[in-house]
Amino acid sequence: xSFKTPELxxxxxxxxxxxxxxxxxxxxxLNSNRLRLHGGMxxxxxxxxxxAQQSFSRKAMTKLGPVKSHAKxxxxxxxxxxxxxxxxxxxxxxxxxNSALAKIEAESNSVCEFFRPCPLVHLxxxxxxxxxGRVAIDRTTARIDEFRKINEQFKFGVGNAWxxxxxxxxxxxxxVSQLPPTMWSINLAAADPVREEEGLWLTDVALSLLRMAVxxxxxxxxAPRLGKIEPHPFHPHEIQDHSFTLKQGGGATLxxxxxxxxxxxxxxxxxxxxxxxxxxxxxxxxxxxxxxxAERFYKGCGWMTRGRRSKDRSDRLLYFFTAIESLLSASxxxxxxxxxxxxxxxxxxxxxxxxxxxxxxxxxxxxxVRSGLVHFGTRGASDIDANSVQEIAExxxxxxxxxxxxxLEHQEFSNLLSKASYGIPLKPR
Length: 429
Description:
alpha+beta
């Protein structure tokens, strides 16, 4: 979809013309609250300029989408263009406006390799890197020489955590960064202010795919099981519970210590993730075609990780239901239709009609808990409720991962589930 549209050219021209009227204000009669300094040039911003900028920004952000657009990035790019305009007649030329739009798009759509500490996943002893689609886990020692070539002022080492210090002595001046032993490496095409958010989302998707692709026995004995809290992928687990309880009947308890539910991958995990069939399936999810099962699967994987990470039972239940709805809600209708989702989930989980009826009834009961949370603010979710929804979600996703062609159109997939819900076996495609 082209960013250089007549609508955006007109909106950019309208803004630039208003901005140029604000250039070189009269400092003897200046409203300091409206003063803007950009690129060494002063502007006294008018209401008309603000409205024109907002109009362009809304159109541009709609075209770019939530990942590639950010108001601060667009704001800077717009004013960078204004200070380059020497003559308003330049704004009558399509080639100038197209060039300016290309600059805004390029600054919003910067592709990069984004690194964050990885305390959650431990690589097998003889493995320096595993890849899960657009997300990889690197052993830092394997890349440290590459990092040291970036800039002679950057001095990298490997430690237990990510630390930064500045050396000012004449012999060793520079920025010294101690990198953690393992890092996430995430391929992003996102605006700078949303890189952390988008990087976390892609990592969340990758973690759910890791759990589906690799057998549980190869994820390590501490990997989070049903109902266990998964630590944040970027931040170390806090082992000490800083709480102190005085009991009404006498006595007291201290919080104590907890071990992190981390992934300690075995060699078989690395072999599985390097298998061409598994890699192809993961790539289909990260680069999903519009309206495919893979597109819905991608969304649901991220919400399942958010569910595993949440410590609140109500949040966990909502996140896991969101994952189920991401996958099973009707195409073109994002609102959950409880009966349909319950029937379709039951079809995926069993070919026995009696079991299907029981599963659907259980899901509808759990939806009642969800409805109380969403519509009335009732904090009524128990750990049994949250764990039940987690189990249902994980079984549904595993069934589709194992048996379905992820490139299948979601509408066709829904039709298969609908036919099977009348009592016939589900035949995957």
